[in-house]
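Researcher: Please predict.
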Amino acid sequence: MNQKSLVILGIESSCDDTSAAVLKNDTILSNVTANQAVHEQYGGVVPELASRAHQQNIIPVVDAALKKAGISLNKLDAIAFTRGPGLMGSLVVGTSFAKATALALNIPLLDVNHMQGHILAHFIDEGQEKPSFPFICLTVSGGHTQLVKVTAPLEMEIIGSTIDDAAGEAFDKIAKIIGLPYPGGPLVDKHAQSGNPLAFKFAQPQVDGYNFSFSGLKTSVLYFIQKQVKLNPDFIEENKDDLCASVQHTILEILFKQLIKLSKETGITDIAIAGGVSANSGLRKRLQEEGDKRNWRVFIPSFQFCTDNAAMIAITGKFLYEKGQFADQSISALARLPFKP
């Protein structure tokens, strides 16, 4: 590739956020996201409603991203899009739009794995220090919890993952038990900051290898609260902060037990976090503390690159472009998508 600027439009539509971003080389010129408030009344994302909202949002969002970046369609060198994993109806909207636009402009198409995108968000240039290879990334979101060994931008190996619920899912489900509205994860984090993390002790499942399990924790919290509410109907309201702090503490214990073990056994000390739950203040604080204690170099993404966003799709597209790994017009979305080899 010659030295001219590389301009990529990124499109993300894996769940309920419609996002478009414009990347020039390693720098994000714009990153525009439309959220879907419609799901709040249902206590979770409704796939059919999500795909309809993507259809309504995608053209205005892409238009806004191009205008904010000051880039016209004919200046784009490629289009990167989320192929999967995610909700099928949502993915189809972004995939179809990306394919049609690339075809119309006669430019390359780059298919991105959503989870790899979260990891490579660390390489968006904001003037920050970036991880050195190899590094370990703990990716934590509503749908995934993974320990990933990253040996190059496009060479990643999942060392451990959840065998049931993801950490973000556990946050949201336990928040619902406590009576917090959806999405509950950020509210648990908020209440936890005023609570005692050691007030209540909850189950920490024993799992083989580097895998995770959170369904036992969810059941443990449910039974504990049911028992306490029988004794005191106001138990939740009187102990909300301590409950949230204790739940968050337990989830972090489960995550860091495996992360510390993997770092010790591999000798890798560049440690990153990624995914929606990496916006959690407790997780960010704990990583800094463990980093200071264990001489890790720790990497925490900017808040705007934690949750689902198109900037991470665009930067991953840049690495694919440089390797000549293009998609063709026969490509289709996949709800379940393994990492690229």
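Model: The chain has a mean pLDDT of 93.
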